[in-house]
Amino acid sequence: MTSTDPTPRPAVRPTRQRRAVAAALAGFDDFRSAQEIHDLISQQGESVGLATVYRTLATLADAGEVDMLRNEDGEAIWRSCSDTHHHHLVCRTCGATVEVEGPAVERWTSAIATEHGYADISHTLEIFGTCPACR
Amino acid sequence: MTSTDPTPRPAVRPTRQRRAVAAALAGFDDFRSAQEIHDLISQQGESVGLATVYRTLATLADAGEVDMLRNEDGEAIWRSCSDTHHHHLVCRTCGATVEVEGPAVERWTSAIATEHGYADISHTLEIFGTCPACR
DNA sequence: ACGCTGGTTGAGAACGATTGTCAAACTGGG
DNA sequence: CCCAGTTTGACAATCGTTCTCAACCAGCGT
């Protein structure tokens, strides 16, 4: 085989819209809803459809380039993230976010899961509180 | 004071509808959506409006008598629960649920939060996996 | 540079969960 | 039995998110 390109070739094209979303994500470090991100893009003079924002965020989330989690109302909120596994400490008033790591927690969850015979484990852990500035 | 009834008097009345929701909740031990609970009630011959199911579930959740969490689609799902603080190990295939407790995790989250100056802490922690029966 | 092919986009409709509205029905106390 | 405050239900209204589909654009071979 003459390097028959084994990769399925995702064919993700670098378009103006995707750049705009990436730029918007780079502009803040707390979690924002798709609507807010859409608004931010508009304020930056760009024009990107809301549906496209959703599509792009979903793609980025699949690629592991952004974190997506749900706030207490069940809305999806996103932000760019580091590539290591971590969790978040989020201010429920202003949204200020701190990435935290807890090896012990990771160990605990897999131990618990194994103990009950569960396989293929994943978990969600988010901490909400009021940050110093908002108290 | 002659016991001037300092409580705002919640006046939660035991109605047919509330009993029906409670009965439905007692009928299963995994998490179900409001719609599913509503359907279950119908199948049991009772007739309760969907809005009432939502209202009742919200009330029960406030009272701490049911757990409410969100599945991966962001939908709210409920089930009756024990009264101690705990988390869940949920099978992502069949929904089988195990309540788990992790004092260490509770301690860790509050420690992390305090360390960063966050107050009034709450947290969510759910573990998803494939149960023995579904493997 | 030109045209083709398939990924991408946008506007708006469609959707589905959840909440709000408001008059009618119900509950418990007096 | 009456009254005042709760609760309910049918349905409209929200709201976040996804779908639809024709127009558009990027990369590639010629």
What's the arrangement of secondary structure elements?
The structure is a homodimer of 135-residue chains.
Chain A (H helix, E strand, L loop, with lengths): L15 H11 L5 E2 H10 L6 H13 L3 E5 L5 E5 L6 E5 L5 E4 L2 H13 L3 E12 L5
Parallel strand pairs in A: 4-6
Antiparallel strand pairs in A: 1-3, 2-3, 4-5
Chain A binds a DNA duplex (30 and 30 nucleotides) through helix 3.
Could you please describe the fold and organization of this structure?
Two copies of one chain form a homodimer. By secondary structure, chain A is an alpha+beta fold. Chain A has two domains: 15-81, Winged helix-like DNA-binding domain superfamily/Winged helix DNA-binding domain (Arc Repressor Mutant, subunit A); 83-135, Ferric-uptake regulator, C-terminal dimerisarion domain (Dna Ligase, domain 1), CATH 3.30.1490. Chain A has four helices and six strands; from the N terminus they run H-E-H-H-E-E-E-E-H-E. The first copy, chain A, has helices spanning 16-26, 34-43, 50-62, 103-115; strands spanning 32-33, 66-70, 76-80, 87-91, 97-100, 119-130. In chain A, a hairpin with a 5-residue loop joins strand 2 and strand 3 (76-80). The longest helix of chain A is centred in the middle third of the chain and has 13 residues, at 50-62. Chain A binds chain B through residues 70, 74-76, 89, 91, 98, 100, 102, 104-105, 108-109, 112-113, 116-132, 135, and chain B through 70, 74-76, 89, 91, 98, 100, 102, 104-105, 108-109, 112-113, 116-132, 135. Strand 6 (119-130) of chain A pairs antiparallel with strand 6 (119-130) of chain B.
